[in-house]
Fold this protein.
Amino acid sequence: MGGVREAEGRTGRQDPWAIYPEIFAAPNAMSSEQKLVAEVAFPLPLYKTFHYLVPPRWKTAIERGSRILAPFGHRKHFLGIVLKTFPQPSSSLPLKEIIAPLDPPLSVPKGLLDLASWLSETYCSPMGESLRAVFPSFLKAPSSSPASPYSSPLNAGTFTKQLTPDQQKAVDYLLPKLKTHHFESAALYGVPASGKTEVYLRLIRVAIEQGGQVLFLLPEISLTQPFWEEISQALHLPVTVWHSSLPLSVKRQAWWELAQGHRSIVVGARSACLLPFQNLRLVIMDEEQDESYKEGGRSPFYHARNVILHRAQKHKALVILGSATPSLESYYETTQGKTSLISLENRVSLETPPPQIDILSTPFRSTLFHQELLNQIRSCLQKKEQIILLINRRGHSNYVLCQRCGWVPCCTSCGTALVLHERFQKKKQPKEQTALQLQCHHCVQKKSLPSHCVKCSGTLRLAGTGTQKVVQQLSALFPESKILRLDRDSFRHKQNQESPYQVFKDQKADILVGTKLVSKGFHFPEVTLVGVLQIDPLLFLPDFRAAEKTAQLLFQVAGRAGRAEKPGLVLIQTQHPQHPVLEALKQGEYHRFLKEELQFRKELGYPPYSLLIRLILTGRKDEVVEKETLNLAEKLKKNFPSPYLELIGPAPAVYAKLRGKHRHHLLIKLPEEKILSSFFDFLKDLRFSPSTRLKIDVDPYDLF
C-alpha cells in the first residue's frame, strides 16, 4: 500500500493465534507493559486485514467490534472495525498506532460481526465490504437511549376474519413450531388469492406476544407501504418500514432502536435481512421466488433467502418462504426434506373460480393490441371494472433506428442502445408539454432525440414498445378512461405524490399499465381483466432461468384478476402459443412445470444441482481484459481439472461494455461444494493488471 507500514497486510485466512503460538499458549500471562495489537478491517475491496498497535490509553475502550480511526495509505483518519485484539509478539515489525476509537465509543453488535464473517466466507467478499453492508456508514451513536413508543407493552388487536380450512390447517401446523423456539423453515405455497397474508398475521401476533421480533421481507420497495398499512391495521401494533429510499435520519433511528430491542416488527425490502435484530423469532419472506432478493449492485452479492436462513438458525427462529410460484431452489429443498411444505390449494372466495386464461396468437409485426384484448378492455370499461396491462419494458420505445443506413444511437459509456423516454417539461404555459429524450438504462447518460440521422440525415423510426407508449396509445383509443403507469420511473418521479398503487386501489383510475411491478402481491378487488403484451422476448433470453422467471411472472400477474366476487379473464399475446410455459399457465399446473424444469436442470448440471459462480473481469482496455480473462481460464483448468469444476467460457459479456468498462466473463459449475473453500482461496490470491478488476458473483441471477 504505497510503502505504508500500517501492519502486516495479511489474507483473511490467517489467524494471529496460529502465527504466534508462543504468545497465545498462555494468554493470561501477558504483562501489564505488553502492548496490544488490533486486527482491523477497512471498507475496501481487499482480501486483507491489517494490524495496528492499540495505544495504552485505549486498551479498555477498544475491543472486538469497536469502530476506530487509523492512518491508512494517504488517509490520515480512516474508519475501520476491530476484528480481534491480541498481545504484540516481541518479534513483530514496527506497527502504526490506532488514532482513537470513535467518540463516543461505538461497537458493532457481536451478532452482526459474525454475520459479516459469514457473508465474507459464503460469497467470497472482502471482510471490509461485508462489514460495510451490515453496519452502514450513515450510522452514528444515538445521543441517548430513545424514549420510543416501541418500548411500551404491545397489545395486539383481535381478528375478525374467519380462516378457511386451508388457512386454519397451515396455522395449526406452524404455530407449534413457532412456540418451540427452535429453528424451522417452512414453504407456504398458496395459489393466488388463497389468503397467505391472513396466515402471516396470526403468526406475527403470537411471535410478538412471546416477546420476539418479526421480519417481514418483500421483494420491492413499492410493496412495503401497502403491507405496512395492512399489518398495522390488522394487529394495531407499531410497524417499522425499512428500505433504501428512506431518509438517513429515519434509518439511523430505526436501526438503533432495533439493536436495543425497542422495535418488534419490520416490513422491509432486501436489505432489511441485515438489520441488528436482538430476539428474532419469526421471518416471513413473501414472494420468495423474486429475483430482487438477490443483491447485484454491490459486494457482498448475497441472496436474502440464504441470509435469513442463516440468521434464523442463530436466533432459533421460524422461517416461512411464501409464494404462489416457488423458486426451483426452495421447491427442491422441500423434495429433500430440508424444508416443510404447506399448501393453500383453494382461493379464499370459493364462489369465484380461478381466472380464465386465453392465449392470443399474434402475428409478427402486428398491431400492439390484439382485437380481442381491445374488445375486452372496452367491455370492462363499460361495466366500471378495472384492468391491468403488463409489458415488461419501461420507457416509450426500445430504440431508435435510421430507415436509410440502420444507425442506432447508443450510449458512449455502455455501448447499448439508448431507450426513448417521454419527458415532461413544465414551462411558463399552464399546460405541460411532452418532450422525447434518449436514456441509458445502465448509467445516467441522457440525450435529446435528434430530428434526423446524424450519419446520413435519414429519417428516424421508433422501434419497440415500452410502458409510456402503451399509455399513449390507450389514451388515444379510450380518451374517457383514466390510465396509470406503474414502473421504476413513475415511482422515482412521484415520491411526494399519492402512489399509483393507492390511486388504483381507491378506484380513481380504470387501467394500470406497468412492468413486472404490477404482478406483485397487490390486491385489487375490482380488477377483472389482465392483459400481457409482448411476452416472447422473455421466453428466449440467454439465461438458464428464463423459463422459470417467465412462468413466475405470468402466474403471478394472472393472479391479479378476479380476486373477489367478479370472475377474471387473462389474455396473453404471443407468437409462440405452444410454448411449454404458456401450456402450463393455461392448465394452471405450475408444479408440473417445476418438476419438468428440475429434470432439465439436473441433466445440464445447473442449480440447484450445482453451485454456479460467475467471474466478471472489467477494465478500460478491451484487449487487456480479454487477455486477463483467457489467462484466468487457463489457471482454473490447470488448478481445478474436471470433474472438480466445469468451466463455461470465457467470452465477452452480453453487455460487453458498461459505464465505460469492457467486460468479459466465465461461469463455473461446482458439482460439489467441498472444494469451495480452496476455490475461494485460489481466487483471493489472484493478481491482475492494475486496471483490471474481478467481480465474484456466487449464485448469479444476472448473466448479462
Observations:
- DSSP finds 20 helices and 28 strands in the chain.
